[in-house]
Amino acid sequence: MFGKNTKIDMGLNRDVELMLKDAKANDGLLPIVQAGEPVLRQQTARYTGQLTKNTLKKLIETMRHTMIEAPGVGLAATQIGLGLALAVVEDHVRDDEDDPREVAEFPFHVIINPVYTPVGEKTASFYEGCLSFDGYQAVRRRWLDITAEWDDENGQHHKEQLHGWPARIFQHETDHLSGELYIDKAEIRSLTTYDNLEDYWCEDPVPTDAARELGFDL
C-alpha cells in the first residue's frame, strides 16, 4: 500500500492541485503536451505515494476524462507534463469481429510503475498513433504477447498476461514513462497524416498495401 513508508511531496502535490484547478476551468480537460516537450523524453520517477490520496484520485479522474475526450485509449502522466510513472488505459471491443489487430475488451485501468516482458517471440505490425504526436500515425512493430505488471491506485500489485491490442496499448503507455515515443521505433516511411490514413490505408488493417506502396518492410 502507498503511504506506509513514504512521504508526501507537498510541493509536487500543490503543483498537481494547481494543474487540476486549471483543468476544471477548461471543461475538466488537461492540456496534452506535444513532441518536442522535454518531459516526454525524461525517465519518470517511480510513484511511491508522493501525492495525497485525494489529489491522486482527482488526478486519475481528470486524466481519464482527458483521455476519453481526446479521444484516446491511453494517457501517460508525461503527456500532461507530469514526471511520475503513472498512466490510464481503457479500450472497448469494436463491431468488427474479424479485426486482425485482435482488439479485445480492456477495461479502465490505472497503471502505476508499469513494466512488461515479452512472452514468446511473436510480433505484430500495425498503424499506431499518439496523442502527443497529434495528426499522424505510423506502423510500429510490437510484441504480440506480454506479461504486464503494475500497481493500482491503492498500491496493490497486479500481474497479467496481455495479448493483441491490449498488449500494444500497455506497451505504448509504459514506454512513455521511460521517455520513448512510438515513432522512435516505427517504420518511418509509413508515417502518414490522419487524412491520408483514412483515404489510403484504413481498409487494410494489416498494412501490406502501405508497405508495398510506401516502401517499407513488415
From TrEMBL:
The active site is at E173. This is Peptide deformylase. One of its GO terms (molecular function) is metal ion binding. It catalyses: N-terminal N-formyl-L-methionyl-[peptide] + H2O = N-terminal L-methionyl-[peptide] + formate. Fe cation binds at C130, H172, H176. The gene is def. Its EC number is 3.5.1.88. The keyword Cell membrane does not apply. Binds 1 Fe(2+) ion. GO terms for biological process: translation. Belongs to the polypeptide deformylase family.
